[in-house]
Write a structure and sequence with these properties.
The chain is α+β, with helices and mostly antiparallel strands and 307 residues long. It has eleven helices and twelve strands.
Length: 307
């Protein structure tokens, strides 16, 4: 293995190289079968951490580590900053978590745009989904023109020509022609009683003893994660909705009821109307969508939806 810089995200490793002139290049995902002896280990930036979430899908539930070969100098402030922040983005792109990839890009946009071609290349495979999640899926939407690094890549993939169609129409055409996986936050959650973090789960650690504390805590952590991952999620159209014929409702299995042995779905929220309109009009005959819970935090409930 000759990789100069490695970013390890859970089970995945991504390689970078640095030329003598200081140019940073992305070498892609690689398999590492040997110990990284002699490499300098750096922890990634805490601008993203799984600790922010009550539940985070396994595919992005990791803290990236940066390994730097002993003969490689990354002391330049911009390079150092980029490498400490890009790991979480790489993990999100690999997991096809379009919302997280887009939000991570926005959080450290100034850092990433100093390496614009490199960042654009990393985001390119998910650029259409990222643009849709940021500009159509969130209530705090971003206008496409405000993120040209993502928008320019997405336009090429969408084959979008503004003189003959709107961006809405381009997305509809793309969704009709392709199977697409999106991560989208729910809106209107305050109108429903689905509880994301019930007290019964929060109190699981109350009676831990000091004997073998680490093992007990890890068992509880794993059990909570697997419990959230097992929740049934239903994302389906509401053509009968009197307020919006294109509405898409999201129901999630009740945590409290499931803990009591009583399975059942509860209304948790909706897909934002702007996104729902495009999705419904792209595939009018499709009324339900393959879905699963992607993350739960104090701020958002996010689902993964395959069209």
């Amino acid at each position: 293995m000759n990789a100069q810089i490695l970013i390890k995200c859970g089970q995945n490793c991504f390689a970078f190289s640095k030329s003598r002139t200081g140019q940073l290049d992305y070498e892609g995902k690689i398999t590492v079968s040997e110990k990284l002896e002699g490499y300098q280990l750096l922890s990634s930036s805490t601008y993203f951490s799984p600790s922010f979430y009550a539940y985070l899908a396994e595919s992005v539930n990791n803290s990236p580590k940066v390994f730097v070969a002993p003969d490689v100098d990354i002391s330049d402030a911009d390079t150092f900053d980029f490498l400490l922040h890009i790991g979480a983005v790489l993990s999100a792109v690999e997991a096809k978590d379009s919302l997280l990839a887009g939000e991570l890009y926005l959080r450290r946009r100034g850092v990433f745009e100093k390496f614009a071609p490199l960042t654009q290349y990393i985001l390119e495979s998910l650029c259409v989904e990222i643009l849709f999640s940021l500009s159509y899926g969130r209530m705090q939407n971003v206008e496409p023109e405000e993120i040209p690094l993502i928008f320019n890549s997405a336009k090429k993939k969408l084959n979008f020509q503004s003189e003959r169609e709107t961006l809405n129409q381009a997305f509809m055409r793309y969704f009709k022609e392709n199977s697409v996986t999106l991560t989208l936050p729910l809106v209107g959650t305050n109108f429903y009683s689905w509880e994301a973090m019930p007290d019964s789960l929060e109190h699981l650690t109350d009676n831990l003893s000091a004997d073998d504390l680490l093992t007990q805590a890890e068992k509880i952590r794993r059990a909570k994660h697997d419990f959230y991952a097992s929740l049934e999620v239903a994302v389906q159209a509401e053509p009968y909705n009197p307020h919006d014929k294109n509405a898409i409702l999201v129901c999630i299995e009740s945590l409290e009821a499931k803990l009591s042995g009583n399975p059942g779905l509860e209304k948790a929220g909706h897909i934002r109307a702007l996104a729902a309109k495009v999705i419904r009009e792209a595939k009018e005959q499709k009324l339900s969508y393959e879905s699963k819970l992607q993350s739960v935090s104090y701020r958002d409930i996010v689902v993964q939806v395959t069209l």
